Amino acid sequence: MPRHNYVPTHLQHEALPLRVSCSVDSRHLSPASCGSPPYPDSDGNLSTSSNGSLKRRRGPGRPSKKELKERETRVQKKEDSLTMAQEKLKDLRLPSTGTNNKSQLIQGIHHFRAGDQVEALKCSDYCKEWYCARVVQVSNDKTEPCVFVHYEGWPPDHADWVGLGLVRTHANRTPLRFGPLGRESDRSWKDYATFYYTSQNISLRQYTGLVQDRRMALHSCPCHSAVTIHPERPDRIGSILQAFHAQKMLRYFRHIHAREATLDELVHVHTPTHVRNYTSTTNSLPPTTDHQHEVDPNPRPLKITSIAALLNSPTESEESPPSPSPRSHRHGSIVGPTRGVGGGVVVEANQDDIQQQHRRFSTAATTAAAAAAAAAAAAASSSSLSSSSYDSNTADLSEGVLVPVSPPGLVCKMTCGELGIAVDTTFHPLHSSLAARVAAGALINLVTPIVEGQLHNGFALIRPPGHHAEDDNAMGFCFFNNVAVAVSNTLEKYPSKIKKILVIDWDVHHGNGTQKIFYDNPNVLYISLHRWEQGKFYPFSGAPDECGEGAGLGRNINISFNESLDKPKPMGDTEFMAAFYHIILPIARQFLPDMIFVSAGFDAAEGHPDNLGGYKVSPRGFALMTKMVKELAEELCSGRLVMTLEGGYELQPLANSALASVAQLLPDHIDPDGPLEYKHSLNAIKPNQGAVDSLETVIGIQRKFWDLPEYLFQPGFRFHLPVEWRATDSISTRPRRDKRPRKVPVVEGY
């Protein structure tokens, strides 16, 4: 044995640096194992004195019996201390200090059960603190074991996925901390735990998925709506989750872990320049050969369908036709003043305002980074984790290094005084980029288990929305086109299973971005139902004769609604259902999609002001449309259906409509009143005159591309719905409007 590796057996735990002797006193080593002495005819412990004589020296590394005994005592104490620490860690159900072994984390996941009361780190305002939480669901993902927890005393939109290193059982060391709503009932959570492990719920967790992520709530106007309440705000997700929670509907979903979309996924539909402008990454973007990112050497004039239409509303005095433009702006040139969703006209900020905001958020990023580092150190200390172990488990609690993002379009001065994009699209330099990437990635993560057969359908509760975002422009509260990114990546990832996709967009605003991205794609059929008003309603695009181009000709269908000039009436349940029944269903059956996406905007719901919606679709109407689409998916593509949130800005109508709609994704036996029926479901079965005229225009154009039923073209046909669908008592189906603010009900458990 080499002398530098040898450690006596009784001291191997401490591994002290001992000096080895090869003298005859070293009984534990054979002479042969010591090697040759440093001098000829010497045993290695002989030294030469000043007068030249030889004398034996005592090896300085050889301890006495007393020293050996003291060392053994110290080693024993150290082992006892280590054993006690490991026992404490075991009680806390945390990984051992400094460990990054995923197998140990996966083993630790089995310690948690639904309904368990635990402590989990909660992140808010760059501060991470331990709060009492309840286990809602344990991830089965072996690559990233984590737990979905509901923080007691906090609204449901604060629920979060946390790594196993950031959740522990309470060991009565300190009092439990609860949110502002206080402690929740143990009885309600025991009820949830009992339900969770029933055979009924086990099968339900394989039916409908729900994806949410608290990081999307970080996206807001820097003014935090202190002066002006911006329509697209974090409360939108909170109101929907509160509605789900009040009806105890959250227990029926399988919760999906969200993530950020990768750069490669984003450049499937967006130009590298656009992705770079709206992300804080410094990494090089993957190369792309997509033709839509190239400039056509022979540009040709095309109809205005999106970029110009979205940003601009032609004035009456501007009658000059649009001039030809390159393919990168292939839907026409910009005409007229730039306008926003609410109808406001752009006010450009000066350079001083822009530079001042950049300095403000650069300073804020530095302060936030320091605060986050201090909070991480404190949390790691309180959880008995090393910094390396803590960092490996904070993916869901950290926003990473905050780098201000200032897109070139962030030059519009909004009414609140902050800078915005395209007139009134709010953008937070520190958080909006992250939220937009999480929204796109969350939808992709929901699609995967549906395509792979682990789920039947699902709802992506995400923001910011996406259907206005074009390949190279952010607008209309949208930065990345979530549906387009997910559709494009699904077609590429599953080419043998998913060859064609149907996208239905029932947001009251036309999805100009989705239309532009798939305008020449024969494998994506885009159908949009929206308010158009002859091109005078935002985003001023979506004319019925915009049908696609090239290989995608006929794969773009705009059901554009206009009010009748003689009898103007807003569209409601009957008008939307007529469009589904007579146009969308027959065309979808001919297209035979392998999967269906729904851009589910709820701004057509009754209660939205005229500039943001102005229609009167009831929660029952949205439920009936969802039922139709679900049945269509069951008929054509094995039930593969994904709904994703787009618009909807008045909180009460938004929450009620989303609740009614998403409930239809669940199995029929969930509703105690039984499944929703078409019979006696509508107050009227005759669409108004404006809808009849609009639908006649649509079928007249689409008959060139689809084999539509002959009855649609009979003289005097008015798109009536089946007689039995009319309610015998209209009051029973009339949506109840409560103009007074409602008190949020106190509901505990899931």
UniProtKB/TrEMBL annotation:
Transmembrane segments: none annotated. It is found in: Nucleus. Residues 230-664 form the Histone deacetylase domain. GO terms for biological process: epigenetic regulation of gene expression. One of its GO terms (molecular function) is histone deacetylase activity, hydrolytic mechanism. Keywords: Chromatin regulator, Hydrolase, Nucleus, Repressor, Transcription, Transcription regulation. GO terms for cellular component: histone deacetylase complex. Gene3D superfamilies: 2.30.30.140, Histone deacetylase domain (3.40.800.20). Residues 44-53, 277-289 have a biased composition (Polar residues). Its main location: nucleus. This is histone deacetylase.
